[in-house]
């Protein structure tokens, strides 16, 4: 866990009208330092070097933190002025900075955040800088466009066309138009506008293409909060007014008004003239959320995720740095945006495993949010119906404040949860919907209500087997089976994404017509539901079934408006959608997540089942959740059913504490991979033998062993785990330890501090 210090901050000056800053502001008034022409400076570049490089400040000097272009060998590369030069290089050879980019310099707190995040995750600084400079065209000159507004002169000769243009400009007051907007609006050709410009009747001006975002107004009417909600909102507002760091775990069942509460925290943050960041896990699905923010504050916030256009990314990046953007709603990488004065970070659904970035820089956005906030004196809100055990334990230990919303808002009540004991149900082979679940669905169809059948498995069937020889079709490059996707008519590897046509004959024994599928995926379940309920409208929600996020959003909206009787879905549906007419949730295989050796298996199953169950009965109608299980007496299943969340966490905490695993111990995972299995294993053995730095902090090394998925994309994977006592200085020891291994052209090594998944 990141454990930031609490540092009070001096009163801050109101930021005023900063969104009106011209884009090409020559000075950033609060930039911390300045280097004169020719001074020796250290520049951190995005190139994979393990140190800063010395340069000379350019003609006219530059600010500390300035984004610059510097020569490196024959190339020009992007960098940031990191500090005073080291002077340990032949001074006569030090070259000058080529150009200072026209963007706000990196602030000292961002430098500190990147440095501490790098230390924490054992990531090289250039990789951290790449995260923080992730906007296209930063080095482009400021892009301008021409706009048109009413001029001073009156033309001697008027035509109908000219009159229409001037009327449009007068009608819209002081607004300016692009050439196309103006000529379209007036219904004239662009040459008419140009003619008026020559006469001085219309003024032509250059304005920056990257415009500030519309102001959000915290003064618009808010919801009338319930007593619980108001208390929570007041607590958060108090923290914001104090201008101090603090983290609050906001726990409440789905529908209890967590969003309503943290929107009031956003409002308070806006009143303080500071910026707010709301992180969401499933960013493709935020339409409803953006509308909600728009309704509360009168304008939409900036939206940052992989689906956003390059132009919009650049605009957000720049505006966030200049103060022309007050609220960003985004995916985890938004944490690295250059906020000018970040006062609040909300991590919604904080338990969600997608906050952990699993390739490239391995960081957990939830922990990094806490780190960043502690550096810039911001408040963090971790919101969840089913918090992670880490956050629960931090609240227990008093490091985080904890606020609970205990009731659902309005008439909605938590659904009734029951198990269906599959040992007592009779089911024909290749069928998964038990008679009990079937009749429950039927009752909902008759009542005109919706049911959700939940199965966390994409595709048609997880296994394709040859009945002649027993061969199972596997990915050629991975240690994984190929999954049939019947809608796409392909086999697909869920590890590497490789697809192949579904063969007629067994690839091993070449016998034809003997391939059979085993087990259900959502597509197969859809078939079963269609057969069982021929008159029902069945909709399937799975991330791979939609070509675009937009198509998925449309489908979700259609379902919300009653466009389906039965919804079949993967964990995609567990997250935040509001289907008011949904009153039954059937979990096809509640035992699925309990298998496997992952230390978070119980926690994840508990969270997922509670979340899915929470989809039922959001509006006036009470809901029911039925869990199909072969082990109704399993402690996790019992905890899910009883709804005794504190009891579950306490029991889970006891077990983890006894085993010395997170959050009561620390872990690091090392994966060595190579096309040559021997090379990967030898490197693992060398590490295991050289474990002195690990033993020195009282920690232990486990392995090397083949990773649970022993081959991905043709690379053999060997894993070592480090288990350390809670207070141990893990990162330093791991850094010293893995320095013994030199990754080469084939051998790769990845180091994961606080691993979340163990594949
Ligand atoms: P959560 O984020 O905990 O799932 P929401 O904030 O989305 O809960 O609230 C659930 C629903 O109840 C939403 O439609 C929300 O607008 C409504 N709601 C919650 N609290 C209030 C309130 N105090 N006044 C009016 N509507 C509310
Ligand atoms: Zn594969």
């Amino acid at each position: 866990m990141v454990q930031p210090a609490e540092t009070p901050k001096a009163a801050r000056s109101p930021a005023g009208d900063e969104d009106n800053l011209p884009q090409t502001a020559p000075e950033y008034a609060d930039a911390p330092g300045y280097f004169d022409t020719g001074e020796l400076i250290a520049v951190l570049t995005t190139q994979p070097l393990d140190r800063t490089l010395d340069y000379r400040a350019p003609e006219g000097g530059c600010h500390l933190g300035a984004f610059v272009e510097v020569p490196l060998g024959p190339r020009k590369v992007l960098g940031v002025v990191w500090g005073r030069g080291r002077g340990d290089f032949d001074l006569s050879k030090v070259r000058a900075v080529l150009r200072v980019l026209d963007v706000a310099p990196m602030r000292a707190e961002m430098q500190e955040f990147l440095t501490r995040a790098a230390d924490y995750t054992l990531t090289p600084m250039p990789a951290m800088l790449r995260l923080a400079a992730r906007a296209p065209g930063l080095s482009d000159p400021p892009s301008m466009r021409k706009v048109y507004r009413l001029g001073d002169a009156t033309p001697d000769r008027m035509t109908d066309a000219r009159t229409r243009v001037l009327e449009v400009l007068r009608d819209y007051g002081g607004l300016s138009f692009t050439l196309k907007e103006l000529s379209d609006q007036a219904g004239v050709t662009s040459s008419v506008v140009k003619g008026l410009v020559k006469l001085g009747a219309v003024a032509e001006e250059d304005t920056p293409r990257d415009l500030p975002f519309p102001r959000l107004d915290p003064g618009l009417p808010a919801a009338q909060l319930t007593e619980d909600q108001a208390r929570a909102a007041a607590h958060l507002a108090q923290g914001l007014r104090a201008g101090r760091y603090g983290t609050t775990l906001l726990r409440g069942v789905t529908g209890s008004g967590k969003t309503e509460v943290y929107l009031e925290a956003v409002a308070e943050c806006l009143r303080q003239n500071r910026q707010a960041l709301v992180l969401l896990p499933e960013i493709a699905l935020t339409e409803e959320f953006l509308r909600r923010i728009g309704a509360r504050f009168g304008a939409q916030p900036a939206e940052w995720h992989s689906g956003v256009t390059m132009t919009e990314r650049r605009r957000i990046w720049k505006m966030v740095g200049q103060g022309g953007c007050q609220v960003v709603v985004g995916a985890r990488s938004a944490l690295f945006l250059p906020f000018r004065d970040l006062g609040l970070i909300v991590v919604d659904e904080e338990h969600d495993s997608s906050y952990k970035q699993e390739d490239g820089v391995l960081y957990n956005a939830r922990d990094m949010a806490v780190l960043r906030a502690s550096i810039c004196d911001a408040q963090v809100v971790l919101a969840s119906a089913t918090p992670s055990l880490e956050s629960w334990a931090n609240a227990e230990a008093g490091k985080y404040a904890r606020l609970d919303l205990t009731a659902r808002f309005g008439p909605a009540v938590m659904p009734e949860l029951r198990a269906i004991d599959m040992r007592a149900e009779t089911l024909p082979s290749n069928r998964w919907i038990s008679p009990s679940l079937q009749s429950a669905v039927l009752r909902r169809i008759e009542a005109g209500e919706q049911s959700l059948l939940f199965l966390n498995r994409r595709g048609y069937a997880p296994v394709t087997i040859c009945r002649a020889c027993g061969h199972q079709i596997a990915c050629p490059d991975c240690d994984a089976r190929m999954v049939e996707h019947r809608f796409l008519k392909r086999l697909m590897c869920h590890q590497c994404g490789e697809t192949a046509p579904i063969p007629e004959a067994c690839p091993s024994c070449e016998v034809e017509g003997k391939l059979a599928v085993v087990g259900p995926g959502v597509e197969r379940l859809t078939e079963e539901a269609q057969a069982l309920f021929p008159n029902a409208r069945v909709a399937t929600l799975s991330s791979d079934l939609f070509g675009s996020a937009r198509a998925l959003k449309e489908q979700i909206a259609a379902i919300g408006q009653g466009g389906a009787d039965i919804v079949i879905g993967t964990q995609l549906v567990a997250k935040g959608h509001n289907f008011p007419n949904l009153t039954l949730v059937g979990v096809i295989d509640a035992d699925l997540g309990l298998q496997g050796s992952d230390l978070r298996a119980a926690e994840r199953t508990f969270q997922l089942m509670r979340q899915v169950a929470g989809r039922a009965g959001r509006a006036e109608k009470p809901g029911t959740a039925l869990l199909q299980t072969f082990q109704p007496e399993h402690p996790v299943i019992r905890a899910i059913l009883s709804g005794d969340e504190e009891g579950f966490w306490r029991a889970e905490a006891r077990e983890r504490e006894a085993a010395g695993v997170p959050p009561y111990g620390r872990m690091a995972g090392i994966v060595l991979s190579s096309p040559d299995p021997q090379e990967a294993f030898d490197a693992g053995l060398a590490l295991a033998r050289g474990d002195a730095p690990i033993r020195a902090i009282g920690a232990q090394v486990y392995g090397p062993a083949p990773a649970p998925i022993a081959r991905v994309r043709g690379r053999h994977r060997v894993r070592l785990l480090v288990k350390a006592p809670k207070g141990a200085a893990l990162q330093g020891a791991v850094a010293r330890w893995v320095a013994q291994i030199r990754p080469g052209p084939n051998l790769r090594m990845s180091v994961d501090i606080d691993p979340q998944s163990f594949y």
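The longest strand covers residues 700-712. Residues 279 and 347 are 5 Å apart (CA to CA).
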